[in-house]
């Protein structure tokens, strides 16, 4: 299936399908809109591993009774600048959205705001939370932990999650804003699930099988361990995510987070979110000018042989979004069939593809 033709779906149609399916399971219209917007944001940015194709696994968790579709997060203010959010085992998108909103509100008054989230679930692509802060004119730090997939450096058993580290800062224009969203593994685990779903092989430096051997088979890789980027450095970053997102917040940690594809028990994912006002030490205009200067220094620097263009972090995804908002989100038929099967289960209208 690796060379199967891609079929494009318009973003509004994708959001409609997700909202319809979620509401059929008891998710409120406002909460369904948040989840749909966040998932489709990943598809638009080219992060297909964290987009609408996650819906079948999320719905299976609801059917198994290990994710509460009706839950709305509870926000408790520990101090004027620190909030604790209990996700109440609902969608991670809702818990993270509420946490970042609380952090942004505090930062508006006090310069910084922080939220610790417990009792949450997978929240998809971290960049959408960074974008939530950018839309409010804020810098941000976004940490989460996740189910075990990486070994501690020197080990071979799954222990730490492939937990993304993300942050952002507003540029002079939205197109030149800084958005970093990266996993501490050589590749995101979602890319292995995507390869499995599409019948594709993976590069040999992504993962080990259960016997500790390099493999290009995504099925074997999912039965083994991901490899950390940079060896001990990637391993240490994964542990850092667990310290801030797991140990500090009171959520599961040390390999005890349940994966989004494991419908056996609640995930209890933790998140750590910070919003920072960028005009703390200078005017906002001066900050944005300095960011613009940094952008031009980076993309205008001398290129190595064979490189046509240097990109600022997040810029490739911005360009993908601009293109996909016009041309649509590319899926393969098996992915469309899987989404439409979920629609059929709750008797809502299937996806309508672009002509």
Report the top-level CATH class: Alpha Beta
**What is the typical, i.e. mean, pLDDT?**
95
**CATH architecture annotation:** 2-Layer Sandwich
Q: Evaluate the radius of gyration.
A: 20 Å
Tell me the strand percentage band: 15-25%
What's the domain count? 1
- Report on the biggest sheet: 7 strands, mixed
So what's the overall shape? globular
Total number of helical segments? Answer: 11
List segments where confidence is low: pLDDT < 50 over at least 5 consecutive residues. Answer: none
Helix coverage percent: 25-40%
CATH T-level topology: Ribosomal Protein S8, Chain: A, domain 1
Order of helices and strands: EHHHEEHEHEEEEEHEHEHEHHEH
Widest sheet: strand order?
2-3-4-12-5-8-9
Task: State the distance separating the first and last CA atoms.
Answer: 22 Å
